Amino acid sequence: MATLVHELVWPDRVVVGTVGSPGSRSFYLQARSGRRLVSVALEKEQSALLAEKIDEILDHLMTTDGNPFSVPSSTPIELVDNEPLEQPVEQQFRTGTMSLGWDPSTVQLVIEMFPIVEADADDRDPFDDADEERDERDDTVEPSEMVVVKIPVGTARAFAKRTREVVGAGRPLCPFCATPIDPEGHTCVLPDGF
């Protein structure tokens, strides 16, 4: 079966946001193009890493002689988006893997997101010897769908900034043990009996 591709090129809006309170937040990448809205669930760590890697790519592109792609060094003020996620948030899928690339022909960053894919236990041969070498192609499972979002450099810089802010807006960390402090309280367990 062919993979269903949800592609948003030059979207009107692309942000990472959360649903829920600190300590039980769910993270989503949400992209809108016209009336089409796609929301994909992410882990907090995936969100943070995505922002970090986008900034790395943009910083690298800025060092190209003469900055031919006009990569901004900071977030253009007109692209700042502090609005919450659009409601209702209807999850397309939970992200398993992502890839990040650069398309010089359109001067856009390309984010590809794939759902978590698990091999169906019913498809496995019960008599297959685990010690035998297996052909890697037998274990490859095509994803049923994917999301592709292509964004220009200014939007990418704004996206990364907002994502870092959203990730950092969680529970404060204990200054002694570095674990998150819950709203109900915190019992700090320090090493060596302190």
Shape: globular
Q: Main sheet, how many strands, which sense, barrel?
A: 7 strands, mixed
How far is the N terminus from the C terminus? 58 Å
Rg estimate, integer Å:
20 Å
- In DSSP terms (H or I, runs of 4 or more residues), the helix count works out at 3
- Please, what is the average pLDDT? 86
- Proportion of beta-strand residues: 25-35%
Strand order of the largest sheet: 1-7-6-5-4-3-2
Total E-strand runs: 7
The CATH architecture name reads: 2-Layer Sandwich
Structural class: alpha/beta
Order of helices and strands: EEEEHEEHEH
Q: Which blocks of ≥5 consecutive residues have pLDDT under 50?
A: 129-137
Helix content: 10-25%
CATH level-3 fold name: Secreted effector protein pipB2 fold
Chain-wise SSE layout:
Layout: E1 4-9, E2 13-19, E3 26-33, E4 36-42, H1 44-62, E5 91-103, E6 108-115, H2 136-139, E7 145-152, H3 153-168
Parallel strand pairs: 1-7, 4-5
Antiparallel strand pairs: 2-3, 3-4, 5-6, 6-7
Can you describe this structure?
The chain has 194 residues and is of the alpha/beta class. It has one domain (4-118, 136-193): Secreted effector protein pipB2 fold (2-Layer Sandwich), CATH 3.30.2450. Helices cover 20% and strands 29% of the residues. The protein contains three helices and seven strands; from the N terminus they run E-E-E-E-H-E-E-H-E-H. The chain has helices spanning 44-62, 136-139, 153-168, and strands at 4-9, 13-19, 26-33, 36-42, 91-103, 108-115, 145-152. The protein has a seven-stranded mixed beta sheet with strand order 1-7-6-5-4-3-2. A hairpin with a 4-residue loop joins strand 5 (91-103) and strand 6 (108-115). Helix 1 runs antiparallel to helix 3 (153-168). The longest helix has 19 residues, at 44-62. The chain is globular.
